[in-house]
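Can anyone check this?
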Amino acid sequence: MFNTRKASLLFDIDNTLVNRDAAFHAYLRNFISRNQTAFSGEDMSVVHEEIMARDCHGRKDRELFCHELLQRYPDLPYTAESLWQDHSSLPEFVKPDQVINQMLQRLSADYQLMIISNGSANMQRRKLQRAGLTNYFEHIFISAEVGYAKPDHRLFSHALSHSQHDSVVMIGDDYINDIQPAMAMKLTTVFINPANENFTIRPDHDLSSINDLEEVLACMI
């Protein structure tokens, strides 16, 4: 049973709770190794960097990403559909972070914890499972299941309908998809911002690491 004395916390998944970029790096090393002949004559480190850039931290439309990759490297032995299927193994490269797990364990004693994420249900839920995070959350809302994707306010409204508190905090790494809509809906915002991106309209709190979240919450609520 969840003890929810203080507030509701909405968490993004990718590059907020789960180091999705690190998992994609690991997947990509495996992918390039399995398909070396398709990259014949290329500098493999450059290939790796280029594909990482095309991926845009997972924010690019997956169909577009697959088509672009096949266009750039036509010797890859995939269709767009089979390439996406291969890419669907990404959650297998997710590694648990004990610091985050322990933090969520502590937070779950005082806050209602919920997930609000874009992506396919299969991929996102497998990432949470691989990271050992699933059981900390009372509700998990994924765009493919709900029918709306961030920054659509309807996904946020769906999550808020399950909140047990007037005080709600959105924690995410994507200013456009996570922070802007949350600010528009008058939620408290915590921007996970390791690159120190600067925006005209500032979130309530700007953190270089999610590991600092507990300290911020203690001052906030």
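Reply from J.R.: I decoded it. The two ends are 22 Å apart (CA to CA).
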